[in-house]
Design a protein that fits this description.
The complex is a heterodimer of chains A (125) and B (392). By secondary structure, chain A is an alpha+beta fold. Chain A has one domain: Sufe protein. Chain: A. Chain A has a 3-stranded antiparallel sheet with strand order 1-2-3, covered by helices on one side. In chain A, helix 1 packs across helix 2, helix 2 packs across helix 5 and helix 4 crosses helix 5. The longest helix of chain A has 25 residues. With 392 residues, chain B is α/β, with parallel strands linked by helices. Chain B folds into 2 domains: 238 residues, Type I PLP-dependent aspartate aminotransferase-like (Major domain) (Aspartate Aminotransferase, domain 2), CATH 3.40.640.10; 137 residues, Aspartate Aminotransferase, domain 1. In chain B, the strands form 3 sheets. In chain B, strands 2-8-7-6-5-3-4 form a 7-stranded mixed sheet, with helices on both faces. In chain B, strands 9-10-13-12 form a 4-stranded antiparallel sheet. In chain B, strands 1-11 form a two-stranded parallel sheet. In chain B, helix 4 runs parallel beside helix 5, helix 9 packs parallel to helix 13 and helix 10 crosses helix 13. The chains are: A alpha+beta (125), B alpha/beta (392). Chains A and B meet through helix 1, strand 2, strand 3 and helix 2 of A and helix 10 and helix 12 of B.
C-alpha cells in the first residue's frame, strides 16, 4: 500500500517531537477526521533553522509531516511559503489516492505556522 | 516473530482442512448436478458437509443453502425477504452496528421504496429491546441483527430478539459470521428464521458460506439460473469450498477451542489495559466473542499503531477513519457512544484457535514501546492526559 520512502519516514521520523523554544507553532486538522498536525519553527534572520512536528494521524500523515520538516529546514520564510503539497508528494515517492489529503494538510500546517510567525513578528515590531 | 492477530478479518486454512479439499480440485471435480459417478461423488461430499453444518446449528439439511460467503448470504436474506414480503409491508429493522453488507443492502432497499429503522445500541453494543418494541409497526416484515459483532465482539441475546420479533409476526435474520462455532447458534432454541454463516472465519476457505432458511419462511430465490440448491441459489456448487466448510465446522465445534481462545483473550485484555489511557471497546466475559478484543489508545491514531505493529510483523486491524476504503470513523465504535476521535484511536486484535500465548506475549512486549513512541509524537496526548485528570 505504501512506498518504501513513506514507510521509512513513518517508522523513523527524523523531525518528530515537541520544540520547547519554538519561535512559532501552528496546528492544522481535526481529530474527528483522523489527522492533526502541529508544526514548530525556529527562525533566525528570516531563515528556518529547525522544524519539528507532532502529528496525530495515519502512516501517511506522519510521513508527510516528516517530509515537510525536511523540505522547510534551511529555507528562508519566503522560500518556505512556496512549498506545495506536490513537493511533499515528490519527497515521498507517492501516496495512495485516498491519502493525498495528508500532503495538503501538511502544506496547510506549514502555511499556518508561517502565518503565526509573521503575525508575532509584526506585533513585536 | 510473525504474529497474525487479525482473525476477525480472515484466518489461515487449517492444513488438515486443505487436505480434505484437495481431491475435489484434481480428482473429484465433477459437477454435483451431473448424473455420472463424478457428479454423484461431488454431490455426496456436498451433502455430507451440508449435514455437518445443519447439525451444528440444529437445522435440517434442506434448510442450509450454500452461497459464496457472508456478504452474499446477508444480501440474499435482506433483499429477497424484502421483495418476497412486500405485499405484507415495506418496513425493515436493523441495528447501527451491523456489518456494511447489511447496512448497504438496507440503503439500497431504501432506494427501492422500503423504509428502514437503524436501532441504537447501548454502551456495550447491545440492542435496546424497548427501542425494538417501539420500532415495530404493522408494516414491519424483517428484523436483521448481527449476532457477534465483528468490531467489538458483542454477542446479542438472540432468544430475546426473536421473541419480540415473532410476537409481532416479524421475521428474524442474524448475521452470525463472526459468532458461528464461537458461541451457541441453535436455530431451534433461539428460534431463528434465517442465519448467515461462512467458512473463512473458522479456518476454512474463503468464498463459501451459507444461509440457513427455516422451512416455511417466505423467501424467493435471489440468484436465478439452473435451479441449484433446490432452486434457491443457482450456480454450480463450489464443491471444494463446501467440503472445506464442512470440515472446518466439524473441527471448530470442539468446545476446547472456545475455552482456549477465551483464556488467551482475557490474558490479552489484562495485559493491554496495563498501558495507561487505554480503554476496552465492547463488553467483557461471556457476552463477548471469545476471539475478539478492541481497544481505544488515547492520543494515537489507529492506523499508525497498526503500522508500527506491522513493522514488528504483528497483524491487527483498525476502526479508524484512515482504514483503506473510507475516511469515516467506525460506525460501530461511534454507535456505542465513543467520539469520532476515540473511534479513530481504536485497534482491533482478534484471535483464532491457532493463536498461542507466545504470540500474545510478543504483542504485549512490543505494544507499550510503540504506544509511548506514538504518544510522544502526538499533539493530542497531553490534552488527553489533562482531560482524564480533570474527569477523575
Amino acid at each position: 500500500m505504501y512506498s518504501k520512502k513513506v514507510v521509512d519516514r513513518f517508522s523513523n521520523p527524523k523531525n518528530s517531537g515537541e520544540m520547547k523554544d519554538a519561535d512559532a507553532i501552528g496546528e492544522e486538522g481535526n481529530p474527528r477526521c483522523g489527522d492533526v498536525m502541529k508544526i514548530y519553527l525556529k527562525v533566525e534572520n528570516e531563515k528556518i533553522i529547525d522544524v519539528k512536528f507532532q502529528t496525530y494521524g495515519c502512516i501517511a500523515a506522519i510521513a508527510c509531516s516528516d517530509a515537510l520538516c525536511e523540505l522547510a529546514k534551511g529555507k528562508t520564510i519566503t522560500e518556505a511559503k512556496k512549498i506545495k503539497s506536490q513537493d511533499i508528494l515528490n519527497e515521498l515517492g507517492k501516496l495512495p489516492p485516498i491519502k493525498i489529503h495528508c500532503s495538503i494538510l501538511g502544506m496547510e500546517a506549514l502555511q499556518n505556522v508561517i502565518k503565526n510567525y509573521e503575525t508575532k513578528k509584526a506585533k513585536n515590531n | 516473530m510473525k504474529t497474525y492477530l487479525d482473525s476477525g478479518a480472515s484466518t489461515k486454512v487449517d492444513p488438515k482442512i486443505l487436505e480434505k479439499m484437495k481431491p475435489y480440485f484434481t480428482q473429484k471435480y465433477g459437477n454435483a448436478s451431473s448424473g455420472h459417478s463424478w457428479g454423484q461423488e461431488a454431490k455426496h461430499a456436498m451433502e455430507d458437509a451440508r449435514e455437518t453444518i445443519a447439525k451444528s446449528i440444529r437445522a435440517k439439511p434442506e434448510e442450509i443453502i450454500f452461497t459464496s460467503g457472508g456478504t452474499e448470504s446477508n444480501n440474499f436474506a435482506l433483499k429477497s425477504t424484502a421483495f418476497t414480503n412486500r405485499e405484507k409491508g415495506n418496513h425493515i429493522i436493523t441495528t447501527k452496528i451491523d456489518h456494511d453488507c447489511v447496512l448497504h443492502s438496507c440503503k439500497w432497499l431504501e432506494k427501492q421504496g422500503f423504509k428502514i429503522t437503524y436501532l441504537n445500541v447501548d454502551e456495550n453494543g447491545f440492542v435496546k429491546t424497548d427501542e425494538l418494541q417501539n420500532a415495530i409497526t404493522k408494516k414491519t416484515i424483517l428484523f436483521s441483527a448481527i449476532h457477534g459483532n465483528n468490531e467489538i465482539g458483542t454477542i446479542q441475546n438472540l432468544k430475546e430478539l426473536t421473541k419480540i420479533s415473532h410476537e409481532h409476526d416479524v421475521y428474524f435474520h442474524t448475521d452470525a459470521c463472526q459468532s458461528y462455532t464461537k458461541t451457541k447458534l441453535d436455530v431451534k432454541e433461539q428460534d431463528l428464521d434465517m442465519a448467515t454463516i461462512n467458512a473463512h472465519k473458522l479456518n476454512g476457505p474463503k468464498g463459501v458460506g451459507a444461509l440457513y432458511i427455516k422451512t416455511g419462511t417466505e423467501i424467493d430465490a435471489w440468484q436465478h439460473g439452473g435451479g441449484h440448491e433446490r432452486g434457491m441459489r443457482s450456480s454450480t456448487e463450489n464443491i471444494h469450498g463446501i467440503v472445506g466448510f464442512g470440515e472446518a465446522v466439524r473441527i471448530a465445534m470442539k468446545p476446547e477451542h472456545v475455552e482456549r481462545m477465551t483464556k488467551l483473550r482475557d490474558n490479552l485484555i489484562k495485559g493491554v489495559l496495563e498501558i495507561p489511557n487505554v480503554e476496552l471497546n465492547g463488553p467483557t466475559g461471556n457476552k463477548r466473542l471469545c476471539n475478539n478484543t478492541n481497544f481505544c489508545f488515547q492520543g494515537i491514531e489507529g492506523e499508525a499503531l497498526g503500522g508500527y505493529l506491522d513493522l514488528k510483523e504483528i497483524a491487527s486491524s483498525t476502526g479508524s477513519a484512515c482504514s483503506s476504503h473510507t475516511l469515516e470513523p467506525s460506525h460501530v465504535i461511534t454507535a456505542i457512544g465513543r467520539t469520532p476521535e476515540q473511534a479513530n484511536s481504536s485497534v482491533r486484535i482478534t484471535l483464532s484457535r491457532f493463536t498461542t500465548q507466545e504470540e500474545i506475549n510478543y504483542l504485549l512486549q512490543e505494544l507499550p514501546g510503540i504506544v509511548t513512541k506514538l504518544r510522544r509524537i502526538s499533539p493530542l496526548s497531553k490534552v488527553v492526559d489533562y482531560v482524564l485528570k480533570k474527569s477523575s
